[in-house]
Amino acid sequence: MKLVQSLLLGSVAGLTFIAGAQAADLPAKKAAPIDYVRVCSTYGTGFFYIPGTETCLRVGGRVRAEYLYSEPIERTDDAVGFYVRGRVQLDARTATAYGLLRSVVRFEITRRSGTPLNGVDGTITTSPQVAEAFVQFGGLTAGRVISFFSDGDLPTEHFGTLRFDDAPDVDLLAYTFTFGNGFSATLSIEDGLERRQNDFIAGGFAAVPLAFAGQRAPDLVGNLKYEGTWGGAQLSGAVHQIRSVALINPATGPVIFGPGIAGTVPDTDYGFAAAAYLHANLPTIAPGDAMWLAATYTNGALAYMNGGNSALNVDPFNALVVNGGLGLVDAFINPITGDIKRGHGWSIAGGFRHYWTPSIRQSVFGSYMRVEYGRGASSVTPAGFVVGLTDFNEWRLGSNIIWSPVSGLDLGLEVIYARVDPRGRVFIPATGLVFGQESGVEGRLRVQRDF
Fold it and tell me: pLDDT tens for residues 209-242?
């Protein structure tokens, strides 16, 4: 029995030795390398290194829901509206020997319903868009981003429209010169198609609508800017091309012009705009408190004071009067001479933000706008009504209060009062309406989550 046990143990030991020797001859399988995601603190919170690269990436987004009340004038008007927007944003940054290389893509999908959208009630729209997509390399900026005419550093926090260039996104190609100590200057060529303003009153008997011809030159924009610990200031200027097609109305045939005018093409004209911005931090009142001011003058480029909007009224309450009776146009055709006549105006806007507590803040804001068209833009009927483009002023005053119970969540309520004062009683032939001073109230409830 002992002999059998000795033979079995010896056999097992031998087999184990042979298997071990054979296994030693096989190639060893290495564990797969693990590439951990590293936090990138160079550019602030939320950035991480894309594995295998030295590029830092931040993934962010926003969900915004608004519920709007706009005072109705007629029975057909929608008094309430709904607004929902979803945003996804990617921000990639890489340090290079030539300076920072940055790329940003921001997609937004917006759905609106109710309240007048572009003057139409009962409308539901869904608009996916590339809100921003740009590359920055050193001083170069190319793509779609906030216009350099605007000052994107203003501490504004209003939901509705105010009359200044409120940080619109446009297509551009720009270069920024940095001088140090907070000073910089930028020269930018920007898409003038997004700055065309021609909300003309249909049926006017005096001024003739200008039908824009093709763009031959982009808008030329420049600014001089300073940013410091106390706040900042900026001076901006823009030149805007105005071109008309032949003086023929495709819908009604030749317009009645003076002798020899119909069928001619007016000379190309150029409008311009200038603006000054100022903002100041006020930590002595409360941490986070700030004030801002924006003053704008436009001549033939009225979109530069139209609340950051282009010719389309992207804000439901952006109408100049609640029943849509006044026009905001870059230029019109004088029916006597056939020349392009520019509209001009100026605006001033400002606001103050105060933190009552670290989680509750309030803003008070307002704007005033004056628009003038001059001779040939309007006429007076025998009944004493003004027909055509009339001079007017508009002012807006509002306030909101925002509660942020947790980081990234805003619950806000805002009220804006707007009033338009035209010169005289304005008659709109297309609708048969006659009106004078008009006013309206808008209320918004906003729920917003940023991440």
Answer: 788 889 999 999 999 999 999 999 999 999 999 9
Residue 85 to residue 242: CA distance in whole angstroms: 34
Please give the sequence-ordered ranges of beta strands (E in DSSP) within 282-381, or none if there are none. Answer: 290-299, 331-333, 340-342, 344-357, 360-372, 378-380
With contact defined as beta carbons under 8 Å apart, do 239 and 272 qualify?
yes
Q: CB of 304 within 8 A of CB of 294?
A: no
Q: Please answer whether residues 58 and 83 qualify as being in contact, where contact means their C-beta atoms are separated by less than 8 angstroms.
A: no
Q: Would you say the C-alpha torsion 93, 98, 99, 105 has a positive or negative sign?
A: negative
Q: Read off the pLDDT of residues 97-147 as tens digits, 9 standing for 90 and up.
A: 999 999 999 999 998 887 654 444 557 878 888 999 999 999 999 999 999
Q: What would the two tokens of residue 194 be? A: 């997004």
Per-residue pLDDT band at 385 (split at 50, 70, 90) = confident
CB atoms within 10 A of CB 158: 23
Residue located via tokens 């550093």: 153
> CA-CA distance, 258 to 336, in Å (whole number)?
5
pTM of the predicted structure, to 2 decimals: 0.85
Write out the H or E segment, with its range, that includes residue 104. strand 99-114
pLDDT at res. 248? 67
Domains of the chain: 147-450 (2.40.160)
- Asked if 162 and 395 count as a contact pair (C-beta separation under 8 A), the reply is no
Q: Tokens standing for 149?
A: 């005419």
